[in-house]
């Protein structure tokens, strides 16, 4: 979508649909309106596939090569910050009342608050968000734009090439396994915690905040280090954000949106499967088997990551562009006729 319409209109559409979904959910706070909740959540969930690839594309279009990882990680930092606020504020706003009407009032306040915040974000995107600079910020971005200009093709062709990219397929699976565990843990955290600590909703929220903030620090630090070292495979602790950066490296010069979108779909598919399976396991056998499953899935993701080659196509293209520029400069210098001094 961003390849056809540009980054600005993609951001406007995604934030606008998020705003629409949030306002729909304000009308869903009633026992017989569950279908409205599903509609609102479905719209917001659809926009996730549009929003999450934006930081990587934004970094590529606006930042030079030595700042790409930092810019991408800071862009995804906002997503993690929103999740942290959700963990913290939701149990504070929505109390565990005995009266369902009181719970409904709390949920209504939460939905209205979310809708107002999302609306402000949509207005800011509409007013301030720009598409891309007039001049590419780096050689790799210039080469990527030139490659797309020369080669007009359908949406299917890049997907076929990505399906044949071994490292990218391995990354999708390792990313889906690792981040899928994070999504399941976020979903089942209340159930796991409340099984041992009654009325501990707020404490569960604080645990979720601590978990996300710990990951946020790793995201920012690893992004800064990666811009200096480009050791993507070694500094993989910020997997939730660095996965998008690594997918761009594996698939360059393909569009960042297509590779990141497929990566996000893989993550969502794994997340849905894990939530269903581990939710059933939690109800039947308790939380210990669930924790064992978490560790097993993470181990499998680690093994797949180890088997993935450390391929850096974008960095290689940058080095090639710099080499060709230096070679051209040296060639021009060699062609300058030698100026001989003469005695007057």
Describe this structure in words.
The protein has 344 residues and is mainly alpha-helical. It folds into 2 domains: 1-132; 154-334, Up-down Bundle (Growth Hormone, Chain: A), CATH 1.20.1250.20. 78% of the residues lie in helices and 0% in strands. It is built from 14 helices and no strands. Helix 4 runs antiparallel to helix 5 and helix 9 runs antiparallel to helix 11. 29% of the residues are buried. It is a multi-pass membrane protein. This is Feline leukemia virus subgroup c receptor-related protein 2-like protein. It holds the Pfam family MFS_1. Keywords: Membrane, Receptor, Transmembrane, Transmembrane helix. GO terms for molecular function: heme binding; heme transmembrane transporter activity.
CATH level 1 name of the largest domain: Mainly Alpha
Q: DSSP helix count?
A: 14
Which residues form runs of ≥5 with pLDDT under 50? 338-344
Radius of gyration: 24 Å
CATH superfamily of the largest domain: MFS general substrate transporter like domains
What is the β-strand count?
A: 0
CATH names the topology of the largest domain as: Growth Hormone, Chain: A
Please identify the structural class as seen in this structure: mainly alpha
The termini sit apart by 70 Å
Provide the helix percentage: over 70%
The overall average pLDDT, rounded, is 78
CATH 2nd-level architecture of the largest domain? Up-down Bundle
Count of separate structural domains: 2
Percentage beta strand = under 5%
H/E order of the elements? HHHHHHHHHHHHHH
Sum up the overall morphology in one term.
globular
Q: Tell me the major beta sheet.
A: none
Main location: membrane
Pfam family, one: MFS_1
Subcellular location: Membrane
GO cellular component, one term: membrane
